[in-house]
Amino acid sequence: MTTTTETQIRRGTGAEPPVKRPLIRRRAETDRVRHTTRTKALIITGLALFTLYSLAPVWWLIVSATKSQGDLYTTNGLWFADMNLGQNLQQLFSYQDGIFLRWMWNTLFYGFVGTAGMTLVCVACGYGLAMYEFRGRGVLMGCVIGSFLVPGALLTIPSFLLYTDLDIVDTPSAIIVPSFFNAFSVYLAKVYAEGAVPPELLEAARIDGAGEYRIFFQIGARLMSTGAATIFLLGFVGMWNSFFGPLVFLRSSDKWTVMLGLYSWLKVKSDSSVDLTGMVVVGSIISLIPMVILLVSMQRYWRSGVTLGSLK
C-alpha cells in the first residue's frame, strides 16, 4: 500500500526519472557543438571567398607581368607562360629616359610629406577638440562632421581658381598643401583621443608645471601613437592612389604621380617600340611594393599597444 501511494504521489507531482536528465544535457551539448561547427564553417567560407576576391587581381597582375606581348593576349590569364619579367622591367625603367622612376619618386615625395603634415595637423586638432573645453566646440565639431557630406569634386573649380591666384598650379604644393587638412582624420583623432588620453594624466602634468605643448608632444602624442599610425597609413594610401587631384592641378609629365602616368600610358596603349599595356601591368606591380613595405613596417604600432609608447 505504501509503495502504491508513493508511486501515485510521484506520478502526480510529475517527477521524471533521473535517467532523462543526462540525456537532455547531452542533447543540448550536441546542439551547441553543431551550432558552433556551422558558425565556424560559415566564417571560414566567408573569409576564404573574401581572400580569393582580394588576391585574384594581384595574382593576375603577377602572372601577366611575366609574359611577353604575344603571350599576354594569347595565353591563359591566370597561369604563367614563358618567363619575360626581366625584359619587361628593363623596358619599364628605360622608357622615355626612366620617366616611371620619376613618377615613383614624385608619388613617394607627395605621399610622405603630405601625409606627415596631415597626421600632425589632424592629431593636434583631434586632441584639442577632445581635451579642451571652449566656446563653439560643438559647432566646430558639427562643421567637421558636416564636411563629410561635401563631395570633393564640387571643390575642384574653387580650388583651381584659388591655386591659380596663389600661383601654385603645376607645382608640388598644389598636391601637398591641400592634403594637410582632412576632416575624417580629425574626427578619427578626436574619437581616439577621448579613449586613449586620460584627463587626469594631463591635470597631473599641469600640476607638475608642464606646458600645453610639452604635454601634447610628450604625453598626448605618444598615447595617440597607434591612432596616428592609422591616420598616417590611411592618408598615405589615399595619397598614393590619388588620381583626380594630380589630373587637374599638374600639367608637366615630369611632375605626375605614378597613377596618373600609368593612366596616360593606358590611354595611348601602344607605341612604335614597346607595348604600353604590358608596361602598365608591370608598373602596377611595382607600384604595390611601397604599400606592402609600409604596411609591414607599421605593424609594430598595432602590436605594441597604446600605453607602451607613453612609458618609454
Folded structure, characterized:
The protein has 312 residues and is mainly alpha-helical. It is 74% helix and 0% strand. It has 17 helices and no strands. Helix 5 crosses helix 9 (183-196), helix 9 packs antiparallel against helix 12 (225-240) and helix 10 runs antiparallel to helix 11 (212-223). The termini are far apart.
Short recap of the structure:
The protein contains 17 helices and no strands.
Morphology call: flat
CATH class of the domain at 96-311: Mainly Alpha
Uncertain stretches: 5-15, 305-312
Radius of gyration from CA coordinates: 30 Å
- Rounded mean pLDDT score: 84
CATH level-4 homologous superfamily of the domain at 96-311: MetI-like
Give the termini distance in whole angstroms. Answer: 84 Å
Question: Helices and strands, in N-to-C order?
Answer: HHHHHHHHHHHHHHHHH
Question: How helix-rich are the residues, as a percent range?
Answer: over 70%
The count of strands amounts to: 0
CATH third-level topology of the domain at 96-311: MetI-like fold
**Class derived from helix and strand content:** mainly alpha
Strand fraction equals under 5%
Q: Number of DSSP helices?
A: 17
Q: Per CATH, which architecture of the domain at 96-311?
A: Orthogonal Bundle
Main β-sheet description = none
Main attributes of the structure:
mainly alpha, MetI-like fold, 312 residues, disordered C terminus, 17 helices, flat
